Amino acid sequence: MSHDHDHNHSELSDIELRVRALETLLTEKGYVDPPALDELIETYETKVGPKNGARVVARAWADPDYREWLLKDATAAIAELGFTGRQGEHMVAVENTHDTHNMVVCTLCSCYPWSVLGLPPVWYKSAPYRSRAVRDPRGVLAEFGVTLPEDTKIRVWDSTAEVRYLVIPRRPVGTDSWPEEDLAELVTRDSMIGTGLARDPNSVGETA
Amino acid sequence: MNGAQDLGGQMGFGPIELEDNEPNFHAGWEERAFAITLAMGATGTWTLDASRHARETLHPADYLSSSYYEIWTKGLEKLLLANDLVTAEEFKSGQSLTPPKTLKRVLKAEEVAGALAKGAPVDRPQQQPARFKVGDRVHTKRMNPETHTRLPRYARDAVGTIETVHGVHVFPDSNAHGKGEQPTWLYGVVFKGADIWGPDSDPALTVHLDLWEPYLDLAR
């Protein structure tokens, strides 16, 4: 075991050393509490993620009153399901329809609705997506394998303030009788960013 | 500021790199960089706006060649130095050489769940009526501040329409610089693609931004 440790140690990169030194210094000074650091990581690794958002979307698909509430006051409607707090303090839900598609970006940094989607993927925070989403959303969507009819209106939401956007994807046809828990399985992270669509119900049925 | 962070509309960055089943963190150090950044933010020594500004003031070449958590790490180091919590000598030696400063609070493990669930709402009570209403045509200002702003370059000097009145929110342009929250009205503004990008724009595109009142004038 000590062998493994030494082995890893000898291969630490500059940034690994830099972060390790920084954490040591902050701990030594009493500015950070190591158990709190572990708890922060644990929270986003196990508790907060796109499953939260999928529950919100599935509820909106299944319950017209909830959908209406979500579109009118997303912060309250989402809090009702227990999802609140950091990077989800001010929520707005935008709905895809037969003639309108919504897509979310943060061109200035990496604003993302953590409370319902967890931490953003690397591509969301990177220059290729941030630079192009506002100017050429169809080109971006093509890279995600999504092609929309030419006359579909595309609304791109650039998260320039503390308002966070959740896309409600279109409900797949043939799911009228599906219970909410099964509907949630169709809701992907990308479909709630607007770079993807909800899963094909047949693809889920086969694995279930 | 017109830094490397202001990416909207820039070209030449190539394809989007997608990763199936992507983990939250790609290395142990990323977890630690994430956690120390959040924990130091929770001490209340600086605002979220100030930390964004610390990242965007990295040299553009450094910003664009750094990974996300590298940017966070470098931004955190700048904030620690600027707030005299860590000295340059301490960064160099890796050892604490001066007594610690007293912080407003230090986040404890048992407080994490509560702190995250509460978040940090930025809406504030209104002091004066909103200048604009839904449907108003507005013109974003032509401006190039060297300080923090949330009006991207691509949306300056452009005409759009107010579609939402969000309420009164903390103003990042002042809050990032220790000049207080100066809460002001925040609006959802919609722009036609062609009014931002010109005649070659996708005719079915609209771009929606959340913009504070000081960025806007009524369009003539």
TrEMBL record, chain A:
<dbReference type="InterPro" id="IPR023900">
    <property type="entry name" value="CN_Hdrtase_asu/SCN_Hdrlase_gsu"/>
</dbReference>
<keyword id="KW-0479">Metal-binding</keyword>
<dbReference type="InterPro" id="IPR018141">
    <property type="entry name" value="Nitrile_hydratase_asu"/>
</dbReference>
<feature type="binding site">
    <location>
        <position position="111"/>
    </location>
    <ligand>
        <name>Fe(3+)</name>
    </ligand>
</feature>
<keyword id="KW-0456">Lyase</keyword>
<keyword id="KW-0408">Iron</keyword>
<comment type="similarity">
    <text>Belongs to the nitrile hydratase subunit alpha family.</text>
</comment>
<feature type="binding site">
    <location>
        <position position="106"/>
    </location>
    <ligand>
        <name>Fe(3+)</name>
    </ligand>
</feature>
<dbReference type="InterPro" id="IPR036648">
    <property type="entry name" value="CN_Hdrase_a/SCN_Hdrase_g_sf"/>
</dbReference>
<feature type="binding site">
    <location>
        <position position="109"/>
    </location>
    <ligand>
        <name>Fe(3+)</name>
    </ligand>
</feature>
<dbReference type="InterPro" id="IPR004232">
    <property type="entry name" value="CN_Hdrtase_a/SCN_Hdrlase_g"/>
</dbReference>
<feature type="binding site">
    <location>
        <position position="110"/>
    </location>
    <ligand>
        <name>Fe(3+)</name>
    </ligand>
</feature>
<dbReference type="GO" id="GO:0018822">
    <property type="term" value="F:nitrile hydratase activity"/>
</dbReference>
<protein>
    <recommendedName>
        <fullName>nitrile hydratase</fullName>
        <ecNumber>4.2.1.84</ecNumber>
    </recommendedName>
</protein>
<dbReference type="Pfam" id="PF02979">
    <property type="entry name" value="NHase_alpha"/>
</dbReference>
<dbReference type="GO" id="GO:0046914">
    <property type="term" value="F:transition metal ion binding"/>
</dbReference>
<feature type="domain" description="Nitrile hydratase alpha/Thiocyanate hydrolase gamma">
    <location>
        <begin position="14"/>
        <end position="195"/>
    </location>
</feature>
Automatic annotation (TrEMBL), chain B:
<dbReference type="GO" id="GO:0046914">
    <property type="term" value="F:transition metal ion binding"/>
</dbReference>
<dbReference type="InterPro" id="IPR024690">
    <property type="entry name" value="CN_hydtase_beta_dom_C"/>
</dbReference>
<comment type="similarity">
    <text>Belongs to the nitrile hydratase subunit beta family.</text>
</comment>
<dbReference type="Pfam" id="PF21006">
    <property type="entry name" value="NHase_beta_N"/>
</dbReference>
<dbReference type="GO" id="GO:0018822">
    <property type="term" value="F:nitrile hydratase activity"/>
</dbReference>
<dbReference type="InterPro" id="IPR008990">
    <property type="entry name" value="Elect_transpt_acc-like_dom_sf"/>
</dbReference>
<comment type="function">
    <text>NHase catalyzes the hydration of various nitrile compounds to the corresponding amides.</text>
</comment>
<protein>
    <recommendedName>
        <fullName>Nitrile hydratase subunit beta</fullName>
        <ecNumber>4.2.1.84</ecNumber>
    </recommendedName>
</protein>
<dbReference type="Pfam" id="PF02211">
    <property type="entry name" value="NHase_beta_C"/>
</dbReference>
<dbReference type="InterPro" id="IPR003168">
    <property type="entry name" value="Nitrile_hydratase_bsu"/>
</dbReference>
<keyword id="KW-0456">Lyase</keyword>
<feature type="domain" description="Nitrile hydratase beta subunit-like N-terminal">
    <location>
        <begin position="1"/>
        <end position="109"/>
    </location>
</feature>
<dbReference type="InterPro" id="IPR042262">
    <property type="entry name" value="CN_hydtase_beta_C"/>
</dbReference>
<feature type="domain" description="Nitrile hydratase beta subunit">
    <location>
        <begin position="122"/>
        <end position="217"/>
    </location>
</feature>
<dbReference type="InterPro" id="IPR049054">
    <property type="entry name" value="CN_hydtase_beta-like_N"/>
</dbReference>
